[in-house]
């Protein structure tokens, strides 16, 4: 079986919530994902590797060799994103490179959406994915993956250029809203 990010994340959370018990984690995985008895679940070594990867890199998918020294972590100012335990881990992983409410570099109130995901990707995907109204979580995930894979290279290049233009405009206006870019005619 191929373990998705959802499986890995669930296994790590279950492992930590169940006193680091491999057997308890395997049981709840079977229940949660309806895995029959004849299909194997991740073994203890695999689950512990996922936990180690999360603790070292912040992801169950990033390589342990990933150098986080040059990476900044950014999240918006939503209070739901700033639980103490989460912020402590993020500060440990991204010292002096955490852009967030209560982070090293604060997320300015009503700041313009500068990142490509914020000003382009989320809206684009929402429009494409919900055009045919997925009925199940699995169908939703499949549609998201299909639509991301179908984004033309030229569209990505245009979004990257727009990102650079937004950065320059943001600097030029002292961080104020980017009405002439957002509402360009």
Give the structural class.
mainly alpha
Total domain modules: 3
Order of helices and strands: HHHEHEHHHH
Number of helices: 8
Strand content: under 5%
Low-pLDDT stretches are none
Number of strands: 2
Strand order of the largest sheet: 1-2
Cα radius of gyration in angstroms: 20 Å
Major beta sheet summary: 2 strands, parallel
Strand and helix layout:
Blueprint: H1 5-17, H2 22-33, H3 44-57, E1 73-74, H4 84-93, E2 98-99, H5 116-129, H6 137-149, H7 153-172, H8 179-182
Task: Give an account of the 3D structure.
It contains 8 helices and 2 strands; from the N terminus they run H-H-H-E-H-E-H-H-H-H. It has 185 residues and is an all-alpha fold. It has 3 domains: 5-57, no CATH class; 70-109, no CATH class; 110-184, no CATH class. It has a two-stranded parallel sheet with strand order 1-2. Helix 1 packs across helix 3 (44-57). The longest helix has 20 residues, at 153-172. It is globular and about 60 Å long. It starts with a helix and ends with a helix. InterPro entries: DUF4817 (IPR032135), RNaseH_sf (IPR036397). One of its GO terms (molecular function) is nucleic acid binding. Pfam families: DUF4817. Residues 4-61 form the DUF4817 domain.
């Amino acid at each position: 079986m191929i373990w998705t990010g959802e499986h890995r994340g669930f296994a790590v959370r279950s492992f930590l919530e169940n006193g680091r018990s491999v057997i308890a984690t395997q049981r709840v995985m079977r229940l949660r994902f309806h895995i029959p008895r004849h299909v194997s679940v991740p073994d203890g070594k695999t689950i512990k590797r996922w936990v180690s990867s999360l603790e070292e890199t912040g992801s169950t998918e990033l390589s342990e060799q990933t150098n986080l020294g040059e990476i900044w972590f950014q999240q918006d100012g939503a209070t739901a994103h700033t639980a103490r335990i989460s912020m402590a881990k993020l500060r440990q992983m991204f010292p002096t490179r955490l852009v967030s409410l209560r982070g090293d570099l604060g997320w300015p109130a009503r700041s313009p959406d500068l990142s490509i995901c914020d000003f382009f990707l989320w809206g684009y995907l929402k429009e494409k994915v919900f055009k045919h109204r997925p009925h199940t979580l699995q169908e939703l995930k499949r549609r998201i993956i299909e639509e991301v894979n179908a984004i033309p290279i030229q569209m990505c290049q245009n979004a990257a250029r727009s990102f650079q233009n937004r950065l320059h405009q943001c600097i030029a206006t002292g961080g104020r809203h980017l009405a002439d870019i957002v509402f360009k005619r």
